[in-house]
Design a protein that fits this description.
single chain, alpha/beta, Rossmann fold, 10 helices, 7 strands, disordered N terminus
């Protein structure tokens, strides 16, 4: 009988989950070593020594797992942050409130590896120069955050249709009610994962995601977008795919942040 891997085994584990597992593994190793040292030699460490040991172990494991450089900073500091948090006399309900807030704001960032990256007015105005001026367009901003780009474009191009897609509840709620108060008939905000969208419904797909998401985005765009439509990414290119056009929103070529435009 042939055995096949289940879906969860085939799915790549996110760096955040790996980082958490590293912390737990380091804690287990440290606890085991300290228990053996106490039973055999009556040897024990002070709190600071324990925290330093945990930090060193997590750093070694993080480098072994080849996580991004910022994890090599976050991981060793985490044990000290936890100890400090336990020492400060803060009401327990505040931790729950903060957890719920960050959960609603960032939602599945740990899995998607796409944190909150807000664009700005310079990017929006640069995007205006790329859009067709002689006909209405349908544009979707995947990961629309607080909705600034969509609301700006909706006012600028009243004949076109602009859709913001955001998976995190709190940013979506903000943009949804902001849109309701402005009563723009050509803008809308959907709470959804952009992977569930059909890109064939849009003339322009705008993305400000992260390097980790760009390859999958390109594959989806090539599969679904119609000939003549555009995929536009701010700051993050698709590795190995040359863009048809690139624009520096702040007119500073020394700044690597630019708009990448691919015509499908």
């Amino acid at each position: 009988m042939a055995f096949t891997k289940t879906k969860w085994l085939r799915t790549p584990t996110s760096p955040a989950v790996i980082a958490l597992l590293i912390q737990l593994a380091a804690l287990c190793v440290l606890t085991l070593c300290l228990s053996i040292a106490w039973r055999a030699f009556q040897f024990k460490l002070g709190l600071v020594q324990v925290l330093v040991s945990q930090a060193v172990l997590t750093l070694m494991m993080t480098r072994w797992r080849n996580l991004a450089w910022w994890w090599c900073v976050i991981q060793p500091l985490f044990p000290f942050a936890v100890a400090l948090m336990l020492m400060v006399p803060v009401p327990s309900w505040l931790y729950l409130a903060l957890f719920l807030f960050f959960l609603a704001f960032y939602w599945s960032t740990y899995r998607t590896q796409v944190p909150y990256f807000p664009s700005n007015l310079k990017v929006w105005r640069a995007l205006e120069k790329i859009l067709p001026q002689d006909k209405p367009v349908s544009l979707v901003d995947i990961g629309s955050g607080m909705g600034g780009l969509i609301m700006h474009m909706g006012r600028k191009y009243p004949e076109s249709k602009f859709t913001g897609v955001e998976i995190a509840p709190l940013p979506w709620l903000w943009s949804h009610f902001w849109n309701a108060t402005r009563n723009n008939g050509n803008t809308e905000f959907l709470r959804a994962n952009y992977e569930t969208l059909d890109f064939a419904n849009f003339d322009v797909v705008f993305a400000y995601l992260s390097p980790a998401a760009m390859n999958a985005l390109w594959i989806k765009a090539k599969k679904e977008m119609r000939p003549g439509t555009m995929l536009i990414s701010y700051e993050f290119p698709v590795v190995g795919i040359v863009e048809n056009l690139s624009i520096f929103p702040d007119n500073n070529r020394e700044n690597s942040r630019k708009l990448y435009v691919w015509r499908l």
